[in-house]
Amino acid sequence: MRIGKLDNDTLNELILNKFAHTRKEVVCSPHVGVDCAAVDLGGRIAVLSTDPITAAGKHIGSLTVHVSCNDAAAAGAEPIGLLVTLLAPPSTTESDIAGVADELSLAAKSANVEIIGGHTEVTDSVTRMITNATVIAKAGDRGIITPAGVKEGDDIVITKWACLEGTSIIANDFACRLSDMEAGELDEARGFIELVSVVKEGLYAYSKGAHAMHDVTEGGVFGAAWEMSEASGIGMEIYAENVPVKAVTRKICQKLSIDPLRLLSSGAMMIACPNGAELVKGLISIGINAAVVGKAHGNGVRLSTGETILPPEADELYKLY
Predict the structure, then answer these.
(1) What pLDDT shows up at residue 30?
(2) Contact 137/166 with Cβ under 8 angstroms?
(3) For residues 293, 299, 303 and 305, what is the CA-based torsion angle, rounded to 10 degrees?
(4) DSSP summary character for residue 310
């Protein structure tokens, strides 16, 4: 099978279609494009999500915290705690494991979330360290929102810049393929790892009445748009020229023949809302770059040029392995 997430048809056929909804406490269960579960614990909604970190060789502690918390924030929920599993190959040193723990601790403090448990194991089942985390969060006053909440006529907003996580991983793990780039450019790209949290903008957009949100991960901007459209049954028109992308990201993607709009993009949140210009103004006022990049209407996902966006395949990052 190809590397990366299962395509959505295969995911449904092999996995999701086999799970029955049997408990009344479960108010949000697995669907394509929906990254969080929600459980009613007697009037208070607990939001949960789980994610592995498998594509990065460095900064896996930071990514573990922020990627998991991002899923909760996309539901409008405030992250509280994380359960973290760390699997390490036999070649791992104690110093390596301590380094991941240090990153987890610092990122957790930054995200105002607590590491509340987990599991650590050395195993020959993996060839490099990988993590998996489950976040526990509490829903906001109006319950949770999901990608299924997109409404006809909504504006589509993207926060910060596309490809922040993907650019950072490439600059860290594949610098040998970018030897003709300036050291300052690579340092800038590596520093994007500090921007991958979308909790601040997620909670802000929720408070301003956003209808739906999706953190932009594997498959990039096009993948997130397709998943939101699939979940909601509402089409999207994407203005590719409006999607904010850093200049160093464009340069790296051009050198490696990578499509930046299909590249791993933790650090960007896709938001469907009734007044995109107003939300963008508010986000900028709290220090978060944002732009209106599309409109929700019709069927399917397409560019403003009329080109149809197909269901997401393997993320562009996996071309480099």
Answers:
(1) 63
(2) no
(3) -130
(4) P
